[in-house]
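Researcher: Going back to the complex we discussed earlier. I've cleaned up the inputs and rechecked each line, so this should be the final set. Can you rerun the prediction on the complete assembly and write out the structure?
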Amino acid sequence: MSDTILMIGCGRMGGAIAQALAPACRVLAFDPHADHLPAGVERLESLSGAGACAVVVLAVKPQGFDAIAPALASLAGPGSVILSIMAGITLERLSAAAGTGAALVRAMPNTPAAIGCGITAAVASPAVTARQRAAVTRTLEATGQVLWLEDEGDLDAVTALSGSGPAYFYRFAEALIQAGMERGLDAETATRLARQTFIGAARLAEVDGVPLVELRRQVTSPGGTTAAGLAVMEADGAIDALAGQVVRAAARRSRELSQPR
Ligand SMILES: NC(=O)C1=CN([C@@H]2O[C@H](COP(=O)(O)OP(=O)(O)OC[C@H]3O[C@@H](n4cnc5c(N)ncnc54)[C@H](O)[C@@H]3O)[C@@H](O)[C@H]2O)C=CC1
Ligand SMILES: O=C(O)[C@@H]1CCC=N1
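Model: Rerun complete. Updated structure for the full complex:
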């Protein structure tokens, strides 16, 4: 078995994984609609030209799964592991397409993968060998941290938290920019302040390694401005209720996407 990686779908996420891998190993990509592929990635015109690949990464939209499903049985040869990053597509649906006993991994990365700062949670089917698990770990670690889970049912919550999560932080920063403008700042100043605050806060959370609650306390002077702002966020549990609704809605959508149409 070669250590060739095959990408089926090479858009935002597939492209991020391919780009992270291409310097170190052979990466093939089948994506008839992609105008550009990352440097070093070989374009395949047809999946029949793929040959045996160590890892086959499925990175089309969940709605595009039915179009690629018929190709999976022939790609799931001995030694190959199929790694799906499609939201909501279950191991059961992957197995129905690839064949009983195929080595399958269902994983959920996030967009910071593009700069090696992602986090991916993954679940393996029983057929995945230790060697295949190591190959998938190496593939995903090219884009950031990897967390193996035992229970596939947890992936709906993972998708809702870390898969979709970057968008929630951006949306909150957008709201802060708007609020700053309403207090008289011009758009450029408000955007610069919010963006750099967001980046600085994230870096502090990474470098310090101290609990988030402690980082929050460091900002919050008793009787000061931050306490006044946080009191609004926390009134009647508002922020926790909002986060709960957001994650529940996204997890529900992840489950809906798993239903065959
Ligand atoms: N964007 C995100 O934040 C995340 C996305 N995902 C999952 O990753 C998958 C891909 O999402 P994105 O990269 O955001 O979408 P995208 O639209 O950027 O990429 C999908 C790619 O698949 C290609 N494609 C469509 N039909 C195809 C076919 N039949 N054969 C080969 N290629 C085909 C498209 O041309 C496109 O380049 C989705 O299933 C999504 O659930 C997972 C984690 C995070
Ligand atoms: O929005 C979505 O469905 C995908 C999955 C997680 C992030 N983006």
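Model: Worth noting: The mean pLDDT is 95.
Researcher: Good, that matches what I expected from the previous run.
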